[in-house]
Amino acid sequence: GRQRNRNVAKGIPTLIVLDSQGEVITRQGRVEVLNDIECREFPWHPKPVLELTDSNAVQLNEGPCLVLFVDSEDDGESEAAKQLIQPIAEKIIAKYKAKEEEAPLLFFVAGEDDMTDSLRDYTNLPEAAPLLTILDMSARAKYVMDVEEITPEIVEAFVSDFLADKLKPEPI
Prior knowledge:
Blueprint: H1 2-10, E1 17-18, E2 24-26, H2 29-35, E3 49-51, E4 65-69, H3 77-98, E5 106-110, H4 114-122, E6 131-136, E7 141-145, H5 152-163, E8 170-171
Parallel strand pairs: 3-5, 4-5
Antiparallel strand pairs: 1-2, 4-6, 6-7, 7-8
């Protein structure tokens, strides 16, 4: 039945999950169903930091995204990167939620695979890892921070400079 489920989901353009108060839990229901056919994580509260995959890459087009590229050959590197960004992402999400606004950034960790390679090609990013970026596809702008080691302080400063319009965009 798995193949059939997949086809059904293909026919669903958008699936928005609401809570009992009618508040949006996620607008990414379609992606979530495809990634979690058994619905183990239903109702799919958004995770503050996502690992970039073929199925959630469409979200890169929805607005500015912080993407931390890591060397995933190195075991545990993606997990460590997620742990690093998570508190910062949670803080920003909570701050905007309190104002009843959508967070101004989505947060991703990207390992190494074909999809990530083509994203780097498309956005003309250097091969370096770790590489801290903010990609804004709709504005065709990127912000890149190439540092030896990425620390929470660096991520936090990068994000707050971005939100304060202090960073100079490079064209994608």
